[in-house]
Amino acid sequence: MYKKKLDEIHTKDDVGIKEVIEKWIETYRLRSKYDESSIVNAWPDIIGKAIANRTQQIYIHDKKLFVKVESAVIKNELAMMRRQIIGRVNEYVGHVVVEEFIIL
Asked: Fewer CB within 10 A of the end CB, N or C, for the chain?
């Protein structure tokens, strides 16, 4: 006879930890802050390490992504990639979080 291990027995009330965390975030209305912080933390993955290393400040306010860089070359490159960056950021989170991209 085959005996199931205790860990393998699932009931209809079992919920994964991801689902629990998602529900908690929605319940306490933390979705926007969670998305904003995940974008800031993932900035090197989204834009690339070379540009991310030259980024001095990044934050999101009122669906606007603000990025501060001192290099004129990087500013120009970011300005040309404006639409692509907005698309990458929103794709990373899975929904629209950023509508404008402002270079400081």
From this structure: N
Q: Model confidence over 60-92: pLDDT tens digits?
A: 999 999 999 989 999 999 999 999 999 999 999
Element (H, E) at 21: helix 17-27
Rg for the chain (alpha carbons), in Å? 20
- Distance of alpha carbon 84 from its chain centroid, rounded? 15
Output the CA–CA distances (angstroms, integers) from residue 104 to 22, 50, 101, in the order listed.
Answer: 33, 18, 10
Separation of alpha carbons 104 and 39, rounded Å: 18
Query: Per residue in 94-104, pLDDT tens?
Result: 999 999 999 99
Burial class (CB in 10 A: 0-12, 13-18, 19+), 82: middle
